Task: structure prediction
Amino acid sequence: KQSVKTMNAQEESIIHRVKEEVAQNYAQELFSTLRDKCFAKCVNKPGSSLSSYETTCINNCCDRYMDATKLIAQTMVQHQAADETPDPHGVKESTAYS
Result:
């Protein structure tokens, strides 16, 4: 029979592996999205190399996409933190998005 402490260590290991896998999948999805969206926006005639305009456009597109992604993530964290903060009056504001 395994002890509770051993099971907790096993559970932590599984959770850690799942988190790593989720992070890797997110990074792959982000890369694919950036590649597809920025390539479609910036490259009109694919060739053997990128023009300076295309390179600049792709760099700017990626930067803006990452900025927007970061802003969205920060906003979601703030909303989650606000939802978890107990209201001293016992009233919870609606966080429904329209």
